[in-house]
Amino acid sequence: MAFSPLLQNLVNTLRCLPGVGPKSAQRMALHLLERDRPGALALASALVDAVENIGECSQCRTLSEDDVCDICSSQSRDRTLLCVLESPVDMMAIEQTGGFNGVYFVLKGHLSPIDGIGPDALGIDRLLDRIDQGEIEELILATNPTVEGEATSHYIVEQLRDHPVKITRIAHGVPVGGELEFVDGGTLAHALAGRRSLR
Amino acid sequence: MSQRVESSAGYVLHTRPYRESSLLVDLLTLEEGKISAVARGARRPKSRLRAALQPFQVLQLGWHGRHELKNLGGVEHVEVQPPLSGTALLCGLYVNELLQRLLQSGESCPRIFLYYRYVLNELQSGEDIEGALRTFERQLLEELGFGLGLHGLDTRLEYRFESQLGLVPAVAGQGGYSGRLLAAIAEDNYRDEEVRRCAKRLMRQALGDLLGDRPLNSRLLFSRIKE
User: Fold this and answer.
1) I need a labelling partner for B80 at 20 to 30 A (CA). Which of B9, B17, B74, B195 fits?
2) Which H or E run includes B33?
3) Domain boundary among B77, B108, B133
4) Window from A58-72, A82-96, B146-160 with minimum mean pLDDT
5) Chain B residues in contact with A193 (beta carbon < 8 A)
6) Are the C-beta atoms of residues B94 and B216 closer than 8 Å to each other?
């Protein structure tokens, strides 16, 4: 049986969500229409609201509906410590640990010559401008430990060659609670290369 | 007929996200040259595939499939190379971009594979990166059927490079390539600074012909770092 055009359209549209195939889209559409019409209206207006109003923070480039996001405008944050990340999700991950009290800069990607992603797409000029303002004392490069993430940090370091700011890179290695036996070779090599002295 | 390869040496040239949890991987393999394959589930949080599918590491790979896009099977590290860093890393990305742009899919090119290994080793050791890159570029051109024809040139003459024709004798003093330097390039002898400069210009011209209007992004990146 074919659905009516409106219903079919709703099912097709729901499939733009990650993890939603034709079956689940159909289930969602029928659930919203049969059992939860107020919920459906709330969802629709929340979506419109979010898409129309959420932009990026002018300082750290994360998703935010204000010009400056909460973290960047917070008084209790240490503004001399800047952590550079690849995506807003990484920022949430670090925020959840609660162990970092500095501010962030989100690149929203990494340098990837083959994909044609260059420094301009990542707002690296904005990052450099911010460092030039002189407030930042330490720059923590927390891009992913992939080839592209490494290339991105290398590029940033090179652009700051003549700048006195302290630059650090997050450590890569064996996960906490892990056992060496099960760690892949690449990670072990990184862990050995980045060992630190205890005395 | 479905085609299945159990185990072949290969390198990852590039990966990009595919569907929700998979990766589309471009590989340089010893037996079948450049191939593209889907690594199913490689982007799931617990997947071991993603850690294994890093560029510049020699892997043992298995794949199957009838079409141009294969399904990746087993992936195993053979030996762990220390990761490239700094300038060597960017040079590695340059080499990968060259191969990605110039190699045809599915054409066996064992010589390129060997020279790729060679250039990665040199990048690792960092002794003569420039010489290694030029040697690799020359071999790549040769293998693609655009050899420079460096042998049997007169060391007293000057040459210019013409697309399609290659090196042709030119009037001296008009910015051509000196035969003496070209002879050194033919022997992969890059000790002399003058030879290096000449080789860089020549390779850039010859590769530029093949690459067309679209410049190499990694080269743009280099020029911005040197600013």
Assistant:
1) B17
2) strand B33-39
3) B77
4) B146-160
5) 82-83
6) yes
Interhelix angle B110-125/B129-143, nearest 10 degrees: 170
pLDDT at A193 over 80: yes
3-class SS of residue B71: strand
Could you give the number of structural domains in chain B?
Answer: 2
User: Which of A151, A187, A193 lies nearest to residue B82, judging by beta carbons?
Assistant: A193
| Nearest-neighbour CA in chain B from A188: distance (Å) | 9
User: Whole-model pTM?
Assistant: 0.89
| B2 Cβ neighbours under 8 A, 6+ residues apart | B64, B65, B66
Q: Tell whether the model's pLDDT for residue A175 goes beyond 60.
A: yes
Cα separation, A26 vs A20, in Å, equals 10
Q: Which of B77, B218, B224 sits opposite A119 (nearest CB)?
A: B224
Chain A positions touching B16 (Cβ under 8 A) are 115
Partner-chain contact B83 A158, CB within 8 Å:
no
Of chain B residues 91-150, which have a CB less than 8 A from chain A? Answer: 92-94, 96-97, 100
Whether pLDDT at B78 is above 90:
no
User: What domain range is B220 assigned to?
Assistant: 86-226
Residues B112, B49: one domain? no
Which of A15, A111, A114, A161 to mutate: most B Cβ within 10 Å?
A114
Which domain CATH number covers B61? 2.40.50.140
Phi, psi for residue A180 in degrees, rounded to 5: -55, -35
Residues B54 and B107 reside in one and the same domain: no
The reply to whether B42 touches chain A by the CB within 8 Å rule is no
Q: What is the pLDDT of residue A180?
A: 87
CB contact residues (below 8 A), chain B span 195-224, against chain A: 216-218, 220-221, 224
| A72 within some domain | no
Question: Cα dist. A93→A158, A191, B6, B60 in Å?
Answer: 27, 22, 39, 34
Q: Which of A150, A185, A186 sits opposite B89 (nearest CB)?
A: A150
Domain membership of residue A118 as a residue range? 78-169
The domain boundary, picked from B20, B42, B77, lies at: B77
From the list A18, A147, A158, which residue is nearest B54 (CB)?
A: A147
